[in-house]
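Entry 14. Structure prediction run on the chain below.
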Amino acid sequence: MLNSRNLFILALIVLAAVLRVSGNLPYNFTPVAAIALFGGAMFSNRALGFIAPLAIMLISDFFIGFHSSMFAVYAALIGIVLIGQLVRKNPTMLRAFGGALAGSVLFFLVTNAAAWLVLPQYTKDLSGLFNSYVAGVPFFRGTLMGDLLFTGIFFGSYKLAEYRFPSLAKA
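Output returned:
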């Protein structure tokens, strides 16, 4: 059910999703992992925590384009929602930032392993896997910075709104 709390959370997520398709953000500096973490931690309906980031990815990928390792991106986002559900138990800002860091590392490991599997430039041995991780390091900075910034915005905005409108916490 979409109560006032879930509507507020969904509004934050939709605004961030617009940023993903706007093309105005640096490469890999997106709100998507923070959406997954925040949704997993904050939606009172846990299914929405999974549905929101995956739906946003699917819709925005329709406009941005699909690629051969999308399965890994979606799998990593599901993992980040699960990390969010761990944060849910005590959603402090410190736990949120810890979840963002864990999510960034998870995303890096999963998506670069997938690149190793599907891209022909990597040999299918440990050396090729290592090379895929090395090639992904420059992109990790944008991922981590975006995840931390947007996590701070989402959880901070929610905490401020909850303070101003205590009914959000009870919804």
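Residues 4-170 form one domain.
Filed with the rest of this week's runs.
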